[in-house]
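Notes to self after the Tuesday call (sharing in case useful).
The group wants a holo model before anyone commits to mutagenesis around the pocket. I volunteered. Ligand is iron/sulfur cluster. Logging inputs and output together so the record is complete.
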Amino acid sequence: MTLPPPSREALTALSNCLEEHSPQEILAWAVKIYGERLAMATAFGAEGCVLLDMLAQLGPLAKLPFIFNLETGYQFPETLALRERIQERYGLTVHFVRPKETVEQMEARFGGPIYHTNPDECCRLRKIVPLRKVLKDFDAWVSAIRRDQTPDRAQAGIVEWDSKFGLVKISPLANWTREDVWAYIRTHNVPYNPLHDRGYPSIGCWPCTRPVREGEDERAGRWAGFQKTECGLHSRRTVRSS
Ligand code: SF4
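Result:
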C-alpha cells in the first residue's frame, strides 16, 4: 500500500525528534514504517557499508527494503568486488540499477566518453535518470550522506521531503562524522572498499575519482579540476531528470 505524502511540517518535527536517536534506531523505524515501500541506495562507500551492517542487525526485517546500487558501468573493480563480499557476509541482495544505455552505446552516441567533457550530463544519464526511474515505485529512500561532506549536504534532515525525486528521504548518518563512521567500521569489522586504504576517502566512478593528498578535503578527489562536488543525487539544485 502506498502511503500518502506526509506534510513538510510533520517531517520537520519528526526529523528534529530523530536527531536524538541512533542511526540503528532511525533505520529500524524506517523499515517498520515503510517496509517494502522503502528503498536503500548504496555506492558501497564507508557510510553505505555501515548502514548495510546496521540493516543486517535488524534480522528478517532487513529483507524488506529494496537495496540497490547505481551501476554506471564506470565503477572500480574493487567496488564491484565489495558488493559480492557484502552480499555474502549479510545474506542481502544489492540490486544493480543500470542506465538505459550501456557505456558502449552511450560513448558511441557521443563519439566517446563524456565524463571529462560534460560530467553533469554523464551523471544525469548514468545516475539521476535511473534513480528517478527506480524511486518512483517507493515511498521513501535511505541515503548514506553526512552533513559535513559538502555544503549541499549540510542542510540535510534526518528525514525530509525529497522534492527532486518525490518521496521521503531518510539519512540516518546525517549527524555523524567521518570519525564516527570509521570507529563503527573498526568496532564491528565491517567490510569496506580497499581503495580507502590507498588514499581514496571518497569513491565514485573511476574516471572521476583520484586519491587525495595530505591535508586535502575528503572529497577533493571527486571530479578534480571541475566545479563539481556532487553527482546531483543529493544536491538541492534542480537537475533535468528525464
Ligand atoms: Fe559519469 Fe563521472 Fe558521473 Fe560516473 S561520476 S556518471 S563517470 S561523470
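Two things stood out.
The longest strand covers residues 66-70.
Residues 119-135 form the longest helix (17 residues).
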